[in-house]
Amino acid sequence: MTRPLWHWSCAAAMVLAVAFGAEAGEIPANERRSDYALMGPELRGMQEDDSANPGMLWVLDGEVLWRRKDGSTGRACADCHGEAAHSMRGVAARYPAFDQTLGRPIDLEGRINACRTKHQRAEPFTFESRELLSLAAYVARQSNGLPISADDDPATLPFVAAGRAIFEQRQGQLNLSCAQCHDDNWGQKLGGATIPQGTQPGTRFIGSSGKVSAHCSGGYVIVWSACARCHMPTAPRR
């Protein structure tokens, strides 16, 4: 299965943990599906056509940022890494990964900001800003066609356990958990939209004609976002 270009879901906010290996209650490995497999032909066509996919606008912006000198060092990403097509091939497929300095898992955007502050001596991009999204999209595009391989560092295990606990925790006025939709009812419709699986090891991976493989290999990403505010509200709606 493959993951489409710039797929947006309710999991489009802070990554809290990345898991690997099968656990009780998870979707069996042979039943894992990329969101791409759940799309209709029109949306698949848009995702596969670079000239029609709006996500390519961010990729083009990211290419500009890759070559733009920034920070007190006056260096660009390209000054250290050269041509992204070669140096960044396979890089995005390995994230999120454990960062020894920070003592926690870090996603691709976090790695970009770490490079900015350490090597460019520049201010980090704001999370979810156009600049950070664009540069992450450009870097991720260089891994088209490669399988996503979650970090298997044992140091991630506490974060895996914490993420799974949050994923399965019932809460809010409706007493729902993420798992009830994304593990138990994936593929069904909610408000006209197809419910994706909760076991995808990445929320914003780049594909297109070649696509990025989304082989799950037992991994999943647990997120906390506006999804909870919509489906598990903790306060009455006004």
Describe this structure in words.
The protein has 238 residues and is of the alpha+beta class. The protein has a single domain, classed as Orthogonal Bundle (Cytochrome Bc1 Complex, Chain D, domain 2), CATH 1.10.760. The chain has helices at residues 41-48, 55-67, 77-81, 84-87, 108-120, 130-141, 157-168, 178-182, 226-231, and strands at residues 2-3, 14-19, 97-99, 104-106, 189-190, 193-194, 212-213, 220-224. The radius of gyration is 18 Å and the shape is globular. The model is unreliable at 1-24, 200-226 and 234-238 (pLDDT under 50).
In a nutshell, what does this entry contain?
By secondary structure, the chain is α+β, with helices and mostly antiparallel strands. The protein has a single domain (2-231), classed as Cytochrome Bc1 Complex, Chain D, domain 2.
Q: Could you give the topology of this structure?
A:
Elements lengths: L1 E2 L10 E6 L21 H8 L6 H13 L9 H5 L2 H4 L9 E3 L4 E3 L1 H13 L9 H12 L15 H12 L9 H5 L6 E2 L2 E2 L17 E2 L6 E5 L1 H6 L7
Antiparallel strand pairs: 1-7, 2-8, 3-4, 5-6
Features:
238 residues, alpha+beta, Cytochrome Bc1 Complex, Chain D, domain 2, two-stranded antiparallel sheet, 8 strands, 33% helix, globular, disordered N terminus, disordered C terminus
CATH architecture label name: Orthogonal Bundle
**Beta content:** 5-15%
The CATH fourth-level homologous superfamily: Cytochrome c-like domain
Structural class: alpha+beta
Cα-atom Rg, whole angstroms? 18 Å
The CATH topology is: Cytochrome Bc1 Complex, Chain D, domain 2
Give the domain tally: 1
The first-level CATH class is given as: Mainly Alpha
Number of DSSP E strands: 8
| Cα distance spanning the termini | 42 Å
**Mean of the pLDDT scores?**
76
The major β-sheet equals: 2 strands, antiparallel
Strand order of the largest sheet: 1-7
Q: Give the overall silhouette.
A: globular
Spell the H/E element sequence: EEHHHHEEHHHHEEEEH
The share of residues in helices is: 25-40%
- H/I helix tally: 9
Subunit arrangement of the protein: single chain
Residue windows where pLDDT falls under 50 for at least 5 positions: 1-24, 200-226, 234-238
